[in-house]
Amino acid sequence: MWSLWRAATGTANDSDDYGGVEFWSNPERTGWLTKQGEYIKTWRRRWFVLKQGKLFWFKESTVTRASRPRGVIPVASCLTVKGAEDVLNKQFAFELSTRNETMYFIADSEKEKEDWINSIGRSIVQHSRSVTDSEIVDYDSRR
Q1: pTM value?
Q2: pLDDT value, residue 1
Q3: How confident is the model over 33-56, as pLDDT tens digits?
C-alpha cells in the first residue's frame, strides 16, 4: 500500500524511474540527516543527495550507479522548507512540507541545518512550475 507521501508526490515503492537524474554524479548537496520513519515514527540517520530538483536518501554514504534510494522527494511538489526546533523540541530540526504532508529532519549542526534549508529552498524555487509568457494575459493590450 502506498503511503500518503508517495501518493502525494507520485513516487512508487519499486520505481526505478528517478526522472533521469544521475544521483551518483555531481550532486548539488549531500550529507547525513536524521529523518523520521514513514510508518514507524522512529528517527533514522540517512545519507541525503539533492540533485536536479529531487531529494534522495540512502542507508549508506557510498552512492554509485547501482545504488537504490530508500526514497525520493520531488522538491517541485514542496511548498515550504523551514526550521522546526519549536515543533519537534529538537535542536537543528527542520521541516519540508507539501500540501498533504510534512516531513521532519534533524541536521548535525546549525550550519548544516541552514545549508540544507537554503539548498532545498533554492531547488524548490528553481523547479517549481513558473508562469510562462504565453500564460500572461495583458488586459490593457485588449482595449
Answers
A1: 0.78
A2: 34
A3: 999 887 888 999 999 999 999 999
The residue type of 123 is: S
Strands ordered across the beta sheet of 43-51: 71-74, 54-58, 43-51, 29-36, 102-106, 93-97, 80-83
> How distant, in Å, are the alpha carbons of 16, 18, 83, 104, 120 from that of 89?
36, 34, 11, 12, 22
How many Cβ atoms are within 10 Å of 118's Cβ, its own excluded? 12
Percent of residues, the chain, with pLDDT higher than 70: 78
Integer angstrom CA distances of residue 63 from 17, 30, 55, 86, 115: 17, 10, 14, 33, 21
pLDDT of 131 strictly over 50: no
Retrieve residue 143's grid coordinates.
Answer: 482595449
Residue 107's CB: how many other CB atoms inside 10 A? 21
Query: Residue written as cell 529538537?
Result: 90
Query: What number of CA atoms fall less than 13 Å from residue 38's CA on the CB side?
Result: 13
Alpha carbons 93 and 139: distance in angstroms, whole number: 46
- C-alpha distances (whole Å) from 77 to each of 59, 109, 110, 137 are 24, 26, 25, 25
